[in-house]
């Protein structure tokens, strides 16, 4: 474009303001949503390839906006993280996941575990969110293996010392820690050992390259091999077809998650799926 730099600047400026306004709107709507019960946790099964059973599921938040319909977490979680509302949202997720896992343990299997996603912004030292987690499990009379947390590599890099300490405590208590979107971040791998990480989740961007791109295939294979050597379990996420599941099984992945097994669904629907599930 031949437009002057000045015009470009103006345009840029206006859209920044618009974005800011849009974000403010999301935040005020989200506060309403928390009050008005517009949020819901969906569940996606995590299939245990070794036992061919489902004894875990990931909780994924959905927002039923009264005017805008269903809003994807990608469109509000990052804004809530910036604003700090994520702390309240994170507590909502925890309390609801605990309520649901109690039902799953009654109706599905006594050892059932729900994975919840935890943002870096929830792990600020002053919030002590992780001790809250332990306390909530105790209050609900649940063992530490009822809830596992999923956290990204980037989250581990913010305020490392405190996060490392807290996660060590969680581990001591017996709460499993999974590294989400593994391979996408840029951190060193030393934390895998330092934190005695239990699980890594191979990012779906790699899984979706299986059989299509040889570098992507090699990455999946290498991650699985490395994890095996370090005694870490692997979840492959974003499995969309049988071939991908077969390849990942061959590579030694322990768990599979993706639309091929089931899409995230409401808790009741997830229970129905669980009861009708037959491994291939
Ligand atoms: P994530 O934790 O990496 O979750 C996996 C995402 O992949 C989910 O998107 C899931 O619906 C989607 N997915 C699962 N299987 C497949 C598949 O086979 N193919 C494809 N293309 N996608 C698949 P979703 O539910 O839209 O969530 C997006 C992200 O939002 C999550 O990514 C997570 O980072 C964040 N998120 C969701 N719920 C929460 C929450 O309760 N708290 C926090 N802090 N973040 C959340
Ligand atoms: Ca996740
Ligand atoms: Ca992920
Ligand atoms: Ca992600």
UniProtKB/TrEMBL annotation:
Indicate the segments forming the EAL domain, all copies.
Answer: 23-278
Q: What is this protein called?
A: Diguanylate cyclase/phosphodiesterase
The residues of the intact protein that this chain contains are 381 to 660 of 674
């Amino acid at each position: 474009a031949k437009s002057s730099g000045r015009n470009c600047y103006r345009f840029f400026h206006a859209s920044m303001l618009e974005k800011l306004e849009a974000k403010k709107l999301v935040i005020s709507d989200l506060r309403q949503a928390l009050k008005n019960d517009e949020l819901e946790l969906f569940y996606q099964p995590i299939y245990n390839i070794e036992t061919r059973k489902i004894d875990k599921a990931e909780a994924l938040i959905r927002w039923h906006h009264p005017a805008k319909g269903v809003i994807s977490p990608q469109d509000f979680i990052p804004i809530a993280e910036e604003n700090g509302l994520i702390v309240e949202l994170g507590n909502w997720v925890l309390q609801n996941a605990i309520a649901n896992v109690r039902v799953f343990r009654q109706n599905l299997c006594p050892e059932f575990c729900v994975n919840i996603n935890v943002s870096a912004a929830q792990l600020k030292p002053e919030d002590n969110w992780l001790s809250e987690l332990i306390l909530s499990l105790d209050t609900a009379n649940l063992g530490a293996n009822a809830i596992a947390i999923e956290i990204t590599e980037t989250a581990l890099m913010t305020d490392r010392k405190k996060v490392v300490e807290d996660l060590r405590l969680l581990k001591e208590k017996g709460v499993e820690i999974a590294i989400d979107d593994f391979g996408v971040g840029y951190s060193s791998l030393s934390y895998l050992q330092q934190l005695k990480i239990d699980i890594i989740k191979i990012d779906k961007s790699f899984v979706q390259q299986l059989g299509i791109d040889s570098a992507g295939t090699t990455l999946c294979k290498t991650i699985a091999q490395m994890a095996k050597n370090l005694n870490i379990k692997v979840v492959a996420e974003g499995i969309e077809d049988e071939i991908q599941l077969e390849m990942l099984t061959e590579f030694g992945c322990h768990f599979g998650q993706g639309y091929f097994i089931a899409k995230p669904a409401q808790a009741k629907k997830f229970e129905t799926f669980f009861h009708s599930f037959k491994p291939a």
